[in-house]
């Protein structure tokens, strides 16, 4: 789940703010949210963005190990009015804007799963590797006005390994209409028992192989989280972006032997070239 922290990036990027007005005059975003990639430059047709980011993040859900990981960035998009179809790495989807205040999205995404080798300290030894899976992600945002200053957000992730739901509120800083600036979301995350046990459960066979206690979780509250997104045009073609996330687990998740930390966190930065 990524894909949620505080106001780290406005300080770091303040030196670039003098170009914000120029970028705003040149481009109108599909919807003025930094978390929504838009390479259309306000026009219908194809949009291409290609880049690279670096993330510092927990090694796996519940881990107390951190490390750096490079991530591809960008997408191929086709915009037609208030609809955008996109392919972004391991996700293929559609998003649509309705009545200026409703944003819907449907995405088919690929989940690599967890591997024993994700823990350099051997904390996953004996738990086995999880199979890769395909998930359907459905999301909706309801803005309180057409400026997208504040909104409600809901997301459902469903697949062969259970279901996860996210509900929260968001706020956008600044007055840009080109998709740059920053935004923050506060969310509550829920999962069913199948999804919970995929991440934090331990079967009898895994307990025997790993030496960890057998653990079965029920569905319910998974975590409370906050995520922050930043995006800025350096010039006509180059964007710099940043993101940060903090997710604090519920008491049931924290009691799992897999959860060696009470939280998950990540921070990332990257660049995208827009063709």
Describe this structure in words.
- Residues 1-26 have low confidence and may be disordered.
- The chain is elongated and about 60 Å long.
- The protein is 11% helix and 49% strand.
- It contains 5 helices and 12 strands.
- A 12-stranded antiparallel beta barrel has the order 1-2-3-4-5-6-7-8-9-10-11-12.
- By secondary structure, the protein is mainly beta.
Q: Concise description?
A:
By secondary structure, the chain is mostly beta strands.
Chart the SSEs and their pairings.
Elements: H1 9-13, H2 20-26, E1 45-58, E2 66-80, E3 83-88, E4 91-98, E5 102-111, E6 133-143, E7 150-159, E8 162-173, E9 181-191, H3 193-200, H4 204-210, E10 220-233, E11 238-249, H5 251-254, E12 263-274
Antiparallel strand pairs: 1-2, 1-12, 2-3, 3-4, 4-5, 5-6, 6-7, 7-8, 8-9, 9-10, 10-11, 11-12
Q: Which value, in Å, is the CA radius of gyration?
A: 19 Å
The overall pLDDT average reads 89
User: Which sequence of SSEs, written as H and E, runs from N to C?
Assistant: HHEEEEEEEEEHHEEHE
- Computed structural class: mainly beta
The fraction of residues in strands falls at: over 45%
Number of strands: 12
Q: How many alpha or pi helices?
A: 5
Poorly predicted parts: 1-26
The outline comes out as: elongated
Strand order in space, largest sheet: 1-2-3-4-5-6-7-8-9-10-11-12
Biggest sheet descriptor? 12 strands, antiparallel, barrel
- Relative helix content: 10-25%
Span between termini: 29 Å
């Amino acid at each position: 789940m990524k894909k949620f922290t505080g106001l780290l990036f406005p300080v770091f990027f303040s030196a670039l703010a003098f170009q914000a007005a120029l970028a705003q005059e040149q481009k109108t975003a599909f919807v003025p949210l930094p978390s929504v990639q838009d390479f259309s430059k306000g026009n219908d047709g194809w949009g291409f963005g290609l880049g690279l980011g670096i993330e510092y993040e927990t090694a796996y859900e519940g881990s107390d190990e951190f490390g750096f990981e490079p991530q591809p960035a960008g997408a191929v998009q086709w915009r037609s009015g208030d609809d955008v179809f996109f392919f972004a790495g391991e996700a293929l989807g559609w998003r649509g804007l309705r009545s200026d205040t409703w944003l819907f999205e449907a995405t088919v995404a690929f989940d690599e799963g967890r591997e024993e080798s994700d823990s350099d300290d051997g904390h996953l030894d004996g738990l086995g590797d999880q199979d890769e899976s395909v998930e359907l992600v459905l999301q909706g945002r309801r803005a309180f006005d057409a400026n997208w200053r504040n909104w409600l957000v809901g997301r459902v992730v469903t697949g062969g390994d259970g279901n996860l739901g996210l509900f929260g509120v968001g706020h956008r800083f600044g007055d840009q209409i080109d998709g740059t600036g920053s935004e923050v979301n506060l969310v509550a995350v829920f999962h069913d028992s199948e999804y919970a046990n995929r991440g934090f459960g331990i079967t009898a066979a895994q307990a025997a192989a790993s030496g960890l206690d057998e653990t079965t979780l029920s569905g319910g509250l998974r975590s409370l989280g906050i995520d922050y997104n930043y995006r800025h045009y350096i010039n006509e073609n180059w964007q710099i972006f940043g993101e940060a996330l903090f997710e604090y687990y519920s008491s049931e998740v924290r009691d799992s032997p897999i959860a060696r930390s009470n939280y998950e966190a990540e921070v990332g930065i990257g660049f995208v070239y827009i063709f």
